[in-house]
Write a structure and sequence with these properties.
Order of helices and strands: EHEHHHHEHEHHEH
Strand order of the largest sheet: 2-3-1-4-5
Distance between the termini: 15 Å
Structural class: alpha/beta
CATH superfamily: P-loop containing nucleotide triphosphate hydrolases
CATH architecture: 3-Layer(aba) Sandwich
Radius of gyration: 16 Å
Number of strands: 5
Number of helices: 9
CATH topology: Rossmann fold
Bound molecules: cytidine-5'-diphosphate
Helix content: 40-55%
Largest sheet: 5 strands, parallel
Length: about 200
């Protein structure tokens, strides 16, 4: 039986960690939709047209190592305002969402645009400072030379662009359960997410 869990929220809110844990808990497949936009954004850095890049996107493009840099994140949020780019990625995401055996998708517009009928919706958030600190530690832990200031600026700039765009802006779906992870540890946040989803499973 298909069962779709939509997990949206701002940059570095913990969607990835929560999504992976939720997918493992329920035995569902997981799609990090941010990777699709990052892969398109990365291609534009060498001058490729974003719409052409989105239309030609291949599974291999998502395996690239350098998609997690702040530079690629910025490029992702810039291509993400283009309606033709978003349209090119819709069918793949919807097919993934309805696969047999259940799916978890995380992003910005999953509960609102991609899967408005998702069986369970979460909106995961935290203060910009907490999110930036977590992302800084994550990137520094991978050996990237980034500063706290640079990471906070990236997070704030993308949040504003993602929230204010005309097409599929980042917003909590009316029927989403909001989880603020500012003062929650990973285990607590995952437990809240699973409890909220269990409540929807009936
Ligand atoms: O990991 P983080 O939360 O920092 O970002 P991400 O989920 O990898 O997304 C990177 C960028 O892709 C976002 O800033 C959005 O502009 C865009 N995005 C989007 O527009 N819609 C989605 N469903 C997922 C990501």
């Amino acid at each position: 039986m298909p069962f779709t869990i939509a997990i949206d929220g701002p940059a570095a809110a913990g969607k990835g960690t929560i999504s992976k844990a939720v997918a493992a808990h329920f035995g569902f497949a997981h799609l990090d939709t941010g990777l699709l936009y990052r892969a398109v954004g990365a291609k534009t850095l060498d001058g490729t047209d974003p719409i052409a890049a989105a239309l030609a996107l291949m599974a291999d493009d998502l395996e690239t190592d350098n998609l997690r840099t702040p530079e690629v994140a910025q490029a992702a949020s810039k291509v993400a305002v283009i309606s033709e780019v978003r349209a090119a990625l819709v069918d793949f995401q919807r097919a993934f969402a309805r696969r047999a055996g259940g799916a978890v998708l995380d992003g910005r517009d999953i509960g609102t645009v991609i899967c408005p009928d998702a069986e369970a919706k979460l909106f995961v958030t935290a203060s910009a400072e907490v999110r930036a600190e977590r992302r800084y530690l994550e990137l520094a832990g991978k050996g990237m030379s980034v500063s706290r200031e640079e990471v906070l600026a990236d997070v704030k700039e993308r949040d504003t662009r993602d929230r204010e765009r005309a097409e599929a802006p980042m917003v909590a779906a009316k029927d989403a359960v909001v989880i603020d992870t500012s003062s929650l540890g990973i285990d607590e946040a995952v437990a809240e997410a699973i409890a909220a989803i269990e409540a929807r499973r009936g």
